[in-house]
Amino acid sequence: MTKPLDLYFKPIITIVFICCFNFVAMAQQPNDCQFAVTVCGNSDFSLNVNGIGTQELGNSNTCSSQENNSIWLKVNISTSGTLAFTLTPGSTSINEDYDFFIFGPNVSCSNIGQAIRCSTTNPAAANQGNNLTGLNSTSTETSEGPGANGDSFVSEIDVLTGESYFIVIDRPIGNSPFSINWTGTATFPDEPSNPVIANPSSSSLPNIEVCDDLAPYDDNIRAFDFTTLTQDIINGESDIDVTYHSSESDANIKVDALGNVFNNTSSNQDIYVRVENTTTGCFIINDMTITVSALTNFNSPTDYEICDDDLDGDDQNGLSSFDFNLKSEEIVNGMAGANYNISYYLTQSNAESATSVLPNNYTNSTPTPTEIFVRIQDMDSGCIGFTSFNIIVNPMPIANDVSLLQCDEDGIPEGFTTFNITQIENAISGDDPNITIDYYLSMVDAENQDDAINGDAFNNFFNPQIIYARVKNTSTNCVNFSEISLEVSTTVTNDVDIQLCDTDGVEDGFMEFNLGAVAGAIFPNTIEDFILVYYETYEDALVETNPLDATFTNTIPYNQTIYGRVENTNACYGISEIELTVFELPNIETESETLYCLNSFPETITLDGGIIGDSPSNYYYQWSTGEDTSTIEIDTPGTYNVRVSTTNGCYKDRTITVLPSNIATISSIEVIDGLQNNSISIFVDENSEGDYEYALDNIDGPYQNSNIFTNLQPGLYTVYIRDKNNCGIVEDLVSVIGFPKFFTPNNDTVNDYWQVYGVSEQFQPNTSIYIFDRYGKLLTEINPLSSGWDGTYNGVEMPTSDYWFKVKLEDGRTFTSHFTLKR
Questions:
Q1: How do beta strands 531-535 and 479-489 pair?
Q2: What is the pTM of this model?
Q3: Of 432, 448, 771, 791, which is least packed with CB atoms within 10 Å of its CB?
Q4: What secondary structure letter does DSSP report for 516?
Q5: CA angle 151, 100, 278 (to 5 degrees)
Q6: Terminal Cα-to-Cα distance of the chain (whole angstroms)
Q7: How confident is the model at residue 385 (pLDDT cuts 50, 70, 90)?
Q8: For residue 655, what are the contacts with CB-CB under 8 A and spacing of at least 6?
């Protein structure tokens, strides 16, 4: 609990000489002479050095060094003797190097003169066994260094009472702090004393924890008056000065004092107290932490939501009563012994000033949500805290009384059927998505939520029968109730059939039905006040779930029964069966192509209806020729159409294209011969109407589509032209002229004669053939129809050699070349 400030300082602890400094480089630090730390009471202490402030050692020593990381100490001699000390670095590393310089006696910072003692020996360079330095009684040197020169110790100083000296401690290498042990016989003035200090082993004052008990209450700032503490520390002494500082550095160098009365700057703030003997300059520094906080030791209340009620006659006006005692219990829940005064307000300013407090049983007068501000005061400490919450009056859900009339369609007109009560939920409570409705047989069950019935499919057992709806808003949990009156009608409507042929282009037994076309047949009377809705199952029609569009594609192929429900103002008048039938179309080949050979006229060919997998006698036919038989006979190319119908009147149309074809008429045959690559090209008359293929020397083929034959040996060939449509084959004889390259007249019946190939009684019979020797001598003239030259001249066999020939064909062509006679 918070206490008055003076109570914190009555048992003030002993203030002792500060034993540890950690200085950083900033203005007015003891890096400079004018801010030197006064050594009091011959106490050993530890210090750290960092930075140099102003460089003040230039040309002021014989140890050839200056400030690197330094601190200035001032020693006032209280009793005569020797001044000696041992400086020990915090690290034992031989590379940790400390130097020192001593000026005096009784010099000023503006004229420090030359150092009377100094040591800048590097312990590592001097191969020392440790890194200690200082003044002792065994050394005789007054200076040593730098580097390897010396052993880090110089001679002690004889000092007199009243003298003062400056000691500069410098660390050129390393980063550890140091400690000093005073080993001389001279003494320093004692630190300030105070008879009220009770604990000489501590340098800290007790921390102060107080509440922010002044407006504004949430900034954690307040005024502190340390006048009483200052008086207790001084305790009537005339040479004691007490100052308060926000940093240890400010306290050490006595700058930026806060004053006895000041405001804290943060909720947790360290305060440093400097107690100085104004005669000797010795001082001590004490520290304490002050903490200012608002009262937070309570539970934050949740928003206060209630449902509207009809106590004021209206359960939809958003006005109701709130018991703030419930919020008070929530705020202190789990806080044993809390002695809080809790009050409620409409504004924060009212809460802070504690004006216009609201009654604990509060009725709102304006629509919610409304923010309520809470003032919480700890009656033991006086601390004050604030919080807030919203009050919210949630509207009651709409719950209208509704009547539902259902058809009795089970074939027994006893007045019992299945109801889908959920289909009237919009009538009960609108279309709020946050609403749930449960149904019960009695109001008691509805209030207690016992034995809910299935609203999707409820079978009544009275006609009429009352059930009860419990309407709940799932967002607010507000509940309302209504009555549902169920009544069964025993009226009936007509069943109907809809039949379609499967004409949608996909013969799968599915078609799109226009259900609206049979509305008049289902309910032949006037339907202006009635609604006809379609359902896929009888159960759906009863409970009015999953209604169908008026345009419906059957889900069972070829045959399916759906249902039409006729109702008036949501009251069922009757349920009818609607038989949907999809008839199959004739399975026929709808497109066909055949040929008629014009050369076979007047013979006829037969065309049929193209029935697949069934007897043609099961169908009706209507031909474009006017005939109605399953087949017709035709002898003329063209396009013939027939409509094939089933007994259900479903039909398909078949188109038969009869193309003309004919035996070929050869217009010409072109032969290229007398060459290495001989060829025959057959040309058919352009008026020939067939589709032709060609073969040589064999009527059975093989046939080729090309009319050109190449790489032919000379001789006689029969060409065949066949109509691919089987209208017939024509042929012709063709001669290919050629000349043997050699012959062997040795009477072995193989190549015994040389003769021009391709000459016959039909082809080139009047051809002239002359044989010459290599010198141009005419040896013989060969009859083109004979067996040829036998290789003799005047009965004498001619020798192996090349011979020349000259051929004049009957068609006027002339060929001259040579051949070889081999023996």
A1: unpaired
A2: 0.39
A3: 448
A4: G
A5: 145
A6: 147
A7: confident
A8: 590, 591, 592, 639, 640, 641
| Same-domain check for residues 466 and 510 | no
| Close Cβ partners of 232 (under 8 Å, ≥ 6 residues apart) | 9, 10, 12, 194, 196
Per residue, the 3-state secondary structure of 210-272, as one string, reads EECCCCCCCCCCCEEECHHHHHHHHCCCCCEEEEEECCHHHHHHCCCCCCCEEECCCCEEEEE
Mention every residue, 6+ apart, whose C-beta is less than 8 A from residue 97.
122, 123, 124, 131, 171, 172, 173, 174
User: Among 201-205, 487-491, 715-719, whose mean pLDDT is lowest?
Assistant: 201-205
Report the alpha-carbon distance of residue 129 to residue 95 in Å, rounded: 11
SS (HEC) of 534-561: EECCHHHHHHCCCEECCEEECCCCCEEE
Q: Which of 607, 640, 660 is the last residue of a domain?
A: 660
> Which backbone phi and psi does 664 adopt, to 5 degrees?
-75, 150
Q: Which of 240, 234, 229, 222 is nearest to 206 (CA)?
A: 229
Q: Are the C-beta atoms of residues 779 and 799 closer than 8 Å to each other?
A: no
- d(Cα 327, Cα 276) in Å, to the nearest integer? 55
The answer to whether residue 638 sits within a structural domain is yes
Which residue in the block uniquely carries the two structure tokens 């064999």?
Answer: 698
Query: DSSP letters along 444-506, please?
Result: HHHHHT-S-B-SSSEE-SSSSEEEEEEEEETTT--EEEEEEEEEEE------EEEEEE--SS-
Distance CA(564)–CA(531), nearest Å, equals 10
pLDDT band at residue 198 using 50, 70 and 90 as cut-offs? very low
3-state secondary structure of 598: helix
Last residue of a domain, one of 615, 631, 660: 660
Residue 427 is assigned to a structural domain of this protein: yes
Mean pLDDT score, 734-748: 92
Average pLDDT, the chain: 87
User: 627: exposed, middle or buried (C-beta count within 10 Å: 0-12, 13-18, 19+)?
Assistant: middle
- Token couple for 789: 């030259």
DSSP for 136-149 reads ESS---SEEEEETS
DSSP 776: -
Question: Position 536: which residue type?
Answer: E
Token output for 668: 């010409």
| Cα gap 701→354, rounded to integer Å | 123
Q: Nearest to residue 188, comparing CAs of 80, 301, 106?
A: 80
* Short-list 186, 190, 191, 189, CA closest to 85: 186
Question: CA dihedral in degrees (757, 763, 767, 772; nearest 10)?
Answer: 0
pLDDT of amino acid 153: 97
Burial (0-12, 13-18, 19+ Cβ within 10 Å), 561: middle
* Co-location of 216 and 202 in the same domain: yes
Rounded CA separation 622/653 (Å):
9
What is residue 391's three-state secondary structure? strand
Q: How far apart are CA 354 and CA 771, in angstroms?
A: 150
Structure-block tokens of residue 531 = 């609604």
In terms of Cβ atoms closer than 10 Å to its own Cβ (0-12, 13-18, 19+), residue 632 is buried
Cβ(338)–Cβ(376) under 8 Å?
Answer: no
Which CATH number does the domain housing residue 517 bear?
2.60.40
State residue 43's pLDDT score: 58
